[in-house]
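Give me structure tokens for this 342-residue protein.
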Amino acid sequence: MTQPQRRPRVLSGIQPTADSFHLGNYLGAVRQWVAMQDTHDAFYCVVDLHAITVPQDPVLLRRRTRIAAAQLFAAGLDPERCTVFVQSQVAEHTELAWMLNCITGFGEASRMTQFKDKSARGGLEQASVGLFTYPILQAADILLYQADQVPVGEDQRQHLELTRDLAQRFNHRFGTVFTVPGPYILAEVAKINDLQDPSAKMSKSSSSPQGIVDVLDEPGVIRKKIARAVTDAGTEIRADETGKPGITNLMRIYSALAGVTMAEVEAAHAQSRYGDFKRELGELVVNEFAPVKERTEKMLADEATLDRLLAEGAHRAAKVAAATMAQVRDHIGLLLPADSAR
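Here you go.
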């Protein structure tokens, strides 16, 4: 009798740094995570330790961590089909990060472009060591769970390459422990751009409030933001990244939510004007987000149940993490804990 084939394991995380995920987060990551829980052994974490690489208000961080988790469950992550947990509730993340720090060269850490970009905004003197070593903690997140694949967008490719390098370096130096992860290329949603500046990516850190559609926005707010989105000269609904970046961005959102190609969006709206198209798109976004918003609010109103689900997820994650760390400690040459040596 043949054994059932093991599903590939995948690990991904999202930061709790805002009061709501936005449209770009949702289309680029969360919705695709929901689909992956049926094809992968999926581990998803709210990466609160990554969030504290920059100053955070403690009360706000705790609240936003619950909001992020509630949105993940509300969007369709099922604790019976995947493991959802909070990063800081599994202590092995920081332990492995320290060990990986010790085999990472200062030069290769210095070449990480995200550190350069983020430190440039606030000045190098204000950047924390945690921000500098952020990619190494990210590598620990992945390697701890022996992930076969990591969902990546273009901005995370460099960090995955560092993770692969560290896994191979450790395995070569100390003996094989880690699975060397490969990329899981997310379905092409392209990047969702700012509604008010279609040349810039939609981002909590750089977009204006009117340029972002949040998952937890009220329906009327969503409709108004879509209606006020910047468009281009003329009235034709046509994809043209250079000549019509505004309407192209809106078409991209429509395409992703409706599950149709850009060509199909264009053909279906050959006779539409911008205003008509925006109204239709606004309803499409509202219909997608309203149920998620309702379920999120219901989960946040029952904090005890939410915390229990996260505790159960952390317990499952910790079993895998502990097994990996037992091997890591042994291979490095650390003494076993006193209780396990007896």
